[in-house]
Amino acid sequence: MDKKQLKKAVEAIIFASDEPVSINRLEKLFPEVKKAEIENIIVGLNREYEAHAFTILKVAGGYQMVTKPEYHDWVKQLYAGRTRPRLSTAALETLSIIAYKQPVSRIEIEAIRGVNSDGVLGTLLERGLIVIKGRAETVGRPLLYGTTDEFLKYFGLNDLAELPKPSEIEAMLKKQETAETVVPEVSTSEASQLNKKSGEE
Fold this sequence. Notes:
- By secondary structure, the protein is of the alpha+beta class.
- The protein folds into 2 domains: 3-75, Winged helix-like DNA-binding domain superfamily/Winged helix DNA-binding domain (Arc Repressor Mutant, subunit A, Orthogonal Bundle); 89-178, Orthogonal Bundle (Arc Repressor Mutant, subunit A), CATH 1.10.10.
- The chain contains 10 helices and 6 strands.
- The chain has helices at 3-16, 23-29, 35-48, 72-78, 89-101, 106-113, 118-126, 149-154, 166-178, 188-200; strands at 21-22, 54-59, 62-67, 104-105, 130-135, 143-147.
- The strands form 2 sheets. Strands 1-3-2 form a 3-stranded antiparallel β-sheet. The protein has a 3-stranded antiparallel β-sheet with strand order 4-6-5.
- Helix 5 (89-101) packs across helix 7 and helix 5 packs antiparallel against helix 9 (166-178).
- The protein is globular, with a radius of gyration of 20 Å.
- The protein starts with a helix and ends with a helix.
């Protein structure tokens, strides 16, 4: 496979995927190509996309094609009226505690929140945003919770180092409480689908 064909193949795979494609996955698909070469191809593709409305973003340790932030207002109109299960204020509070203090036990979470968190932890586990990481080496050996790759994808993060500051979390919670209507944000996977549809048109 020549370099031009390889570049198109990498682009096609990232474009077609609903999930971030890891560099390890790309290496398995192209065993004759080194990791550095694949990364250089992605850098080159993004350079070509500078004049376009989309780019390849690193999310949850993988690569995904998304629309650029400056086009959010137009993209948002496409999704107006559509609903998806949103996180409650309690879920966001609990998730933020887990994200910043993980691995963390239910007792620690409830000590910070001041209320029972069994229900919200169940919801977050069911949605795949958190996972049980193990047990604490303390009396009773309580379960410890941590975030997942699904959490990173949900918030458009590549890794935990990109977490917003606590003040930004607080502002998000206030916005959640005062919002009268909900227009779902375009997730990375939804943005990828949008790009596909735009290409078809």
